[in-house]
Structures are given as C-alpha cells and as structure tokens.
Amino acid sequence: MQQLTARHDAQHGFTLIEMIVVIVIIGILAALGGIFITRPIEGFLDLSRRATLVDAAESALRRMQRDVRQALPNSVRIGCGGQCLELLHTVDGGRYRAGGPGNVLDFIQPDADGFDVLGTLTAAPDTGDALVIYNLTATGTTANAYSGDNRRTVAAGSSASSIVLASPLPFPFSSPYQRFFLVDEPVSYVCDTAAGTLTRYAGYAIASSQSASPGGTSALMTRHLAACSFDYYSGTPERGGLVSLRLQLAEEGETITLLHQIHVENAP
C-alpha cells in the first residue's frame, strides 16, 4: 500500500535587516527626488514673485509718467530728500489775444473782462480752474505758479473762446508766444519706505511749500516699496527737462529695481 507523505513548502519573508535596507534605500531615493522636484518649484515661485513685483512697479511708473507729461511747464519739484514729487496738472492750454481786434489780455492795467482765446479750447474751462502764464520755476516768488504771482482763477462765464478771470490783477510777465495753461489741481507722489507704500495725492490746495502729507484724496500706487528716489533736471530753453524715477520693490527675499526717465516739455 502506497504511503502518502505530506509535502511542506518552506515559507520565506523579509528579515529585519532586509526591511531596514529597503527603508534606507527608499529614503535616499525620496530625498534625491525631492531635491530635483523642489528646485524647479522654488525657481517658479521666485520667478512669479519677481514678475509680480515688476508689474506693480511698472504700473506705478506708467501712472506717474502720464501725470508728468501733463504737468505745467516748470512745475515739477522734488522734496522729502528725493522721496516726494509734486506737479501742477494741466487740463488744457492755448494762446491769448495780445493785439488786433477783439478782447486783448492787458498786462499793464487790471483786466476785468478777461481775454479772447486764439482758436478755441477743447472745452469750456471749469470755474475755479487756475490759469497760468509764463511759469519759469517751482521755487521763489517770481514767475512761480505755486506762489501764485502768475496764477489767476477762472471765473463763471468763461467759454472755449473767451476766458473771464476772477481777479483783474495783471500778470507779471507775458509769454513770448502768448501761451497760457489751465491747471485743475496739484498732484503729489510720496514714498513711505517704513510702510512700504507709494501714494498719489490730488485735489488739495496749491501751496508755496511742498509737503509730505499734502492731503486731498489719496490712492495707493504700489506696496512692497523698499526704496525710491526721484530726480528732476530742469534743462534749458533749448533742451527740455528730465524726470528720473527709481523704484525698488522687495518681497520674501526677492528684490527688483526699475529706473524710468521722462522727458518734460518746459517751454512756457
């Protein structure tokens, strides 16, 4: 009679040493993989932060450029150690009648009835706008619209072809080309590196001295401001002025610096 014998297969498993070796190898591979993955991710995040900072700085500089391009000639001034920029914002301009038939602007006697505009303005000026003739500087008391000797207020009854002034006092200087400019408001840009902000102020009263807190309405231009500097070169009668704007923004270890220069037409 045939005997049946049971066959037992040997069962094998991981030993403790093998398990430790596997864990160590997996840890090494994970660490190496993490290095290869982390670096590109960090680079992408750094690039995104830099792009965001550049976009914020460029947006602020473009806004400043628009205002500087519309500044009254020779009205740009720098204060606060190069961290404040102020200008008188123009809305229109033209040429006054200096002779011939019509209502002539008198520079000798008080002129109560205003003057005719050669051609027409783009629109009737708003009552309360400032009319400036032959502005030569942003300092001193002569030919300076901030001090007011060459600035008069537009009165009611003005039109695109004729302007009435609230004060009949004659202007101190005539313009060689009979030019005048209409100013609606002063505008200031103020850097606050402690708060990390660049702020635009507008709608406040024109003052002879420049202030770091001019009042009026404010609008935040950018955050993350680490440093800024404004410079103004007035130029000569033959060469326009130049405004230089430098903004430095920083966030989470990333720093960008942008320099922007704007040519200014200063012919009064």
Description:
By secondary structure, this protein is an alpha+beta fold. The protein has a domain at 72-86 and 185-264. It is built from one helix and twelve strands. The chain has one helix spanning 16-69, and strands spanning 77-79, 84-96, 115-118, 130-132, 151-153, 162-163, 179-192, 197-202, 217-222, 225-233, 241-251, 254-264. Strands 1, 2, 3, 4, 5, 6, 7, 8 and 9 form a nine-stranded antiparallel sheet that branches. The model has no long low-confidence stretch (mean pLDDT 89).
List key phrases describing it.
three-stranded antiparallel β-sheet; 268 residues; nine-stranded antiparallel β-sheet; alpha+beta; 1 helix
Outline the biggest β-sheet.
9 strands, antiparallel
- Tell the overall outline: rod-shaped
Number of helices: 1
Number of strands: 12
- Judged by helices, strands and strand pairing, the structural class is alpha+beta
